[in-house]
Structure formats: structure tokens, C-alpha cells
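Re: duplicated header lines in exported C-alpha cells

Our pipeline writes sequence and C-alpha cells for each protein into one text file. With two proteins the header for the second block appears twice in some exports. Here is an export where it did not happen, for reference. First protein block:
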Amino acid sequence: MTTSTINANPQVFKASGSRPVTDSELDDNIHDPVDSREIFDILRTINDPEHPLTLEELNVIENSHVEVDDKNNYVSIHFTPTIPHCSMATLIGLSIRVKLIRSLPRRFKVDVKITPGSHSSEDAVNKQLNDKERIAAALENSQLLKAVNQCLSEK
């Protein structure tokens, strides 16, 4: 967590809660395609790097901004920083990507992008978040990996 806060008083939203797990989802003999709510549930509890709140509570991620094509092994996430000049946008996006890498089967291609028009450096952040070499280099940085793991840790 950082010591100076860029958005000291963010708007907080009510968390939706996890959806109930069905018997068919627990049965390994039944094919259960990945859907947008499952991806949202994976991401909703990621901690914001500046506040003791989750990305769901800050409305940074929303179920409506998750697209999944299970047949073609594709997941797309758009996230919305709380302010247009958020300096934590890349760290948030990296945390989202790492959480999905750790949670999904390797067959999935994942795109993580800022919601169009919601950040002043949208193109630059999107380029960083979807460049394999930049992601790999970022995850080799022990301080950055520590910050990502802090975002992904359970409260």
C-alpha cells in the first residue's frame, strides 16, 4: 500500500456477493464452461492498492465489463480506475492479469484493458498490460511482485 493517496475519498459501492455454487459445477464429470460471472467472482475480491477496499467495492471492475468466449478460450476485462489520472492503473491491471493467470486454465488468452475514455493514459496503460515481455519483466521485479501479491491477498 502506498503512503500518499491520490484519491483520498473514493465512492464506495455495495458488494454483490458471490453467486451460489451449483451441484453441476462441483461435478467433475459435467463440462462447466467458464462464464463472465465466474471471472467476475475471481476478480471481485482483489484489493485496491491505495484503499482497504476491493475493486468491486470501488466499482473498478463490473460484471458487465467481463466478456468470456469459453469455446475460443478468450477472456476480456475492462476496468475503470476511480479517477482519470490514477497512477495505480497499471498495478491494478497487472493484479487482474496475475489473478487470472493463477486462476484460469492455461488455454485462455486474456486481454486486460482500461474502460475506454476512463483514464488519461489509456493507450499507454493498455499497451503495458497486454505486452507479454513487459508483464514478464514486471513480475521479475520483487517490489512490484510484492505489491501485486498484496493486492491479491485475502483480507
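Second protein block, exported in the same file:
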Amino acid sequence: MSFVDTLRQWDEAVTCVDRQDFSQALRIFLAIQEPNSKIFFDIGCLHLLNQDLDAAEKAFDGSIRKDEHLAIAFFQRGITFYKKKRYEESLADFQRAFKALRGNQLIDYKALGLRYILYACDVLHNMALVDAHLGNWEKAQGHLMRALDYKTEAKFNIIDNALHSVLKQKLFKLVEFPSKMLFKPNKHYVAELEKKDYLGKAKVVASVVPQDEFSGFAPLQPQVKDGPTSPKEPEVLRALEGEPHTVLFEFVPETSDELAVVPGNIVFVLQKGADNWAYVVFNERRGLVPYNYLERLEISLASKKNKGITPPPSREPPTRPERIQGLTPSETSSGNRQRKSPDNSCIVKVHFVFNFVVSVPRGSPYVILIEKISKKLNLPSTAFTLSLTSEASGQSVLNANTDTEKLWSRASGGRITLWCNAKEQTDGKPQEEEIQLVALHSYESSNPEDLNFQQGDKITLLSRVNQDWLEGQCNGNTGIFPASFVEEAPGNGQ
């Protein structure tokens, strides 16, 4: 089924839901041959509305399988497990939903086609309820106390009432997602489904110059002496960011960080990963597209002289490249895409002020490991300590005398997690101050891993992802953002 057909059926189904014809909407959804993550989610919501919990669970499984970062899908599957009284699985899904929030107070899904805001305090509220069902009243109280840190004014009474119930060891009401609220297809895509007459009615024109025998359908051109021999390349083309490419094959996204394109679209490649995926911009939207679906385009108009229109490819599209699993979209979009670790290498995830990964040969001595991390942080190895646990104490601290065989035996699936702690300065030198940035322009992104801010906001720099992207903190939220949108605030380092 083509992307256009899928889009048409998706739009038809949500229209049925708007007029309360849920059974017809479900029939249309189930007829879609290759549902994406959002369509699977919509199917699950309709099954949940019909109290068909087994079918709802299966649909939310499909949604999560297509997009492992979709927090709202974990939230809905957690509600499904709760209604099936499978409390341990319900708690695990609520925990995954909270983790997908990445410390943010909320995720607004409006930009993705769902008019719903998932609040962190609602997720913690439901975690507390599940723990209450399991008899873990102290854990339930802890979740609600933590929810107070994430609450908004509108959510204060809900958390406060739940906390009073827990203190009396009484159950309280579950926060549910409105199942009639569904992901809707992009309105710009839907508008393109209607045929448009861009030419209008033909109008014959003729030159007013008596000696000019031309007549036809093209508009008259200014007649000048010694005109250019070839068309001038528009300045706007040279000002666009990235390398222009033509889309050869239709690509239907399977996750929220991928971008839907069709043959003939012109995309601009910002970064190309080693795994044959490209991070592109198209119509002011950014996302991932297989690079083997693209062909480099020469945008100089002069190079196209005397060339006809290239017909669309008749062959089948190439095989979809394998996506890297286990990395967050921010690591993907910022160009830090890494191959799966081969048998002789290991991915080391390091918890610091921010999280990052390095790849080192499995069994490497401490000096190689510390050198890799020192280079990543741009700090001397004497400025921090590595440990196996979050608290750098006792035998958890790594040093040159550490038994490397014991260290690497902790690796699972080619991965190991370490903690990095900065040492306090003891030589009288002041510790490095935080770098403050000021937003030159407002930045808004639909990706939950990005940091949104308004012009003039103050941002604390956490790390430099690369020369184009930074990671920072603003208004209690943490994420990545373009370096060109900010400048260093006056007074830093003074």
C-alpha cells in the first residue's frame, strides 16, 4: 500500500471517529496493510474504547515496536495492563513512559497530530496507584512526593488528593487517556490528496514587437541586448542549508524521528550516518531518510540546460537500512549515530552532568578507557573519577590498579554503564563556571529530545554535541538545540 493510500484511509478513519462512527473507523484502520506507530496507537485506543483489552494490548505492542520512544504508547499500554489487573507489567510500562519524558515536565503531542499533553506528574500518579494495588504503600507515597516536583497548577488537586488517600492506605482513581482522541495525519499531506489545477486555463499570448513572429503559451520575457547566455542561479538556492538531493522512492516512516517523502521531493541532507541513514530537512521539517533512497542534485539551473524531465524510477525501492537500536533520537539527530558494537568492541555509556557514549575495544586497560572519556569531555583525566556505581566510594572507583577482566565481565550485550564524577579543586584554583547563553531566536521542535526556548531566554550550556548542536538546560528542561540560535551571555568568566 502506497503512502498516499495509507494517508487517505487514515484521514477517512479519523473522520468517522469525529462523527462517532467508531465501528466503521476501526474497520478502515484494520484494512491498512502496513500501519505506522501512530495508526497502531489509534487502533489500540478504539479497542480500548470497546473494552477489547487483548486487541488493545496487541495494537499498542505494534505501536511501541514501530517507535520505541513514543511515551504515550507506553502510557496507554500501562492503562491496558492495569485494567487487566496485570499490575507488574502496568508499573513497568508507566516507568518506561516516565523515562521517555527524559526529566521534562510534559510532552505536547500537538505537533505530531495528537491534541494531548502527557504530564510527568500523571505518569507518577499512575505508578503510585499500581504500587498501592501491590501493597507497596511507601513506594506509592514516594512516587506522589516526586510528582509534586513535576506538578502544574491544574494538576495540584489530583496529586494532593491521591497523597491523602495513600496516607490512609486507600486506593484512588486512575488518570486515563481519552480514547476518542487519536493521532491525525498531517493536514498539509491531507490537503495534497485533492487534485489541483496549477496551470488554470491556457491563454495564448503574442509578442507586441512587429518583427517577432512568436506566439505560444509562455509569458513574454524582457528583451534586452547582450543578455546572459544561461539562466542565473537564484540566490536563494545557494543560501539553503545542506546538500540538495532528489527523492527516488517513496519512504513511509516507522518511527517519530523519520520523515515521510515521495519521489520527486527535494530534500537537503544535513548529515549522513555510517549506517546509510541521512538526517535531512524538507519543508521546514527535519528527520531521517535512507540515503539509498536519494540522489545528489545539482541545483545550478545552467547545468539543467537542454535536459528533459527525468522520469521516475521504475525499479523497486532498495532495502530499508538497519536502524541503530538503543540510542536516543537526540544521539541520532545530532549525528552521533554509532554502529552496533562488533564482537571485539564495547559501547560504554557514561553518566555525567549529561550522558554520552564512547566505544573502546573490549578488555582495554584503564589508561585507554580514561583517555577516551577525557578526550570526550575535553578535561584532563585528573579532573574526574570513574566508578561502577553512582556513588564513587570504596571498591566501585576505577583506577590503574583495577582488575580489567572483572570490569569487562560486567558488560552485557556489548555494553557497560559507568559513572563519572568531577573532582573538587584543591589547589586553590576556582572551579570552572557554568557558561550561560542567550537565545538569539526562538526554537520550537516537535522532537521531545530537543530543548525549546523563546528569544531572550537564558540557557545553561551542558555540553557541545558537535559544531552545530549544543546540549543545555532552560526553564527546568534539558535537551539539544542548534548552536546558531544562541550566543554567549555577557559576563561569562568574569
